[in-house]
Structures are given as structure tokens and as C-alpha cells.
Amino acid sequence: MRRVLMTVCALGLAVGVAAQSKLSDPASANEKAPATYKAKFDTSKGAFVITVHRDWAPRGADRFYNLVKNGFYDDVRFFRVIDGFMAQIGMNGNPEIQSTWDRSKLQDDPVQRSSSRPKTGPERPLPPSSSTLLRLPD
Predict the structure, then answer these.
(1) Which of the residues 18, 36, 49, 109 has an alpha carbon 20 to 30 A from that of 12?
(2) Strands, DSSP E only, in 11-98?
(3) What residue ranges do the domains of the chain occupy?
(4) Residue 92 · residue 76 · CB < 8 Å
(5) Which of 70, 86, 89, 76 is nearest to 132 (CA)?
């Protein structure tokens, strides 16, 4: 993963010293996400965009918004890819930042809707200790 970019309406987001301090203190990365936003992932295999609907999972959408906005996923690689099933990302390259976020657990959102995409394997629920990991279906 080379760099994750987020587009939120026409808002330009600057990542700098303030963003790094928010990554060091998860409690300060608490901005409410827009109702709908997009995160663009530029990878060595091409780009893709995730559209996030806050009403589907408010806690997860807010966490993801703040992580992307503050550069958590910049220069982060997919660490698990299972062809025909999924790819996983979400471990920051800085061990101190990753450790800090590992301790900042997120209570799961109640299920509002399921994925409409067909699955190639059984769906396993995430543990109630979610932090920064994303599992993207194939």
C-alpha cells in the first residue's frame, strides 16, 4: 500500500504534525465522520475506493475516518491476502503507534445490514476488541 487518500466532499485534508499527535493519542482522534465519505487506496496493483456510510456502522465509520484523515494507513501494506476470499490491512509501520491503537479497543457496532456481495467462505464475526484492522472481501 503506497498511500491512502480520503476525499470528503470538497474538503482537503492536510496530514502533518497535528495528525501525528492524534495518532499518538487515540482519544484525540474523535472527529465525527460525514454521513457518507470515500477513502481511496492507491496500491502497487492499482487503486480502489471504499464508500463508507456512517449510518451502517457509526463507531467503525468514525474510527476509520479519523485513522485515514490522520495518516494511519499511509505507506501500510496488506499483510494477508487470500486469493478469492479477502485482503487484510491495518497494522501501522510504527510499532509505538500500532501498540497505542491496539490498546484503544472499539466496541462493535450493532449489525445494521449485511454485505450484498457473494462470499467465498464462511463469514466470521470480528471480536468485540476491534481496533485498526480492515478485512476487504474479494
Answers:
(1) 109
(2) 36-43, 46-53, 80-82, 86-89
(3) 3-137
(4) yes
(5) 89
Going by DSSP bridges, is the β-strand pair 46-53/36-43 parallel, antiparallel, or unpaired? antiparallel
- Whole-model pTM over 0.90: no
Helix spans in 80-127 (H): 95-102
> First-to-last CA distance in the chain?
16
| CB-facing half-sphere around the CA of 52: CA atoms within 13 A | 26
Extract the C-alpha cell encoding 94. Answer: 510504527
Spacing of C-alpha 105 from chain mean position: 14
pLDDT digits (tens, 9 = 90+) for 76-132: 888 888 888 888 888 898 999 999 998 888 888 777 776 555 443 334 454 545 678
Q: What distance in Å separates the CA atoms of residue 105 and residue 130, rounded to the nearest whole number? A: 6
* 47: Cα within 13 Å, side-chain hemisphere: 10
Going across the sheet that includes 46-53, the strands are: 3-7, 36-43, 46-53
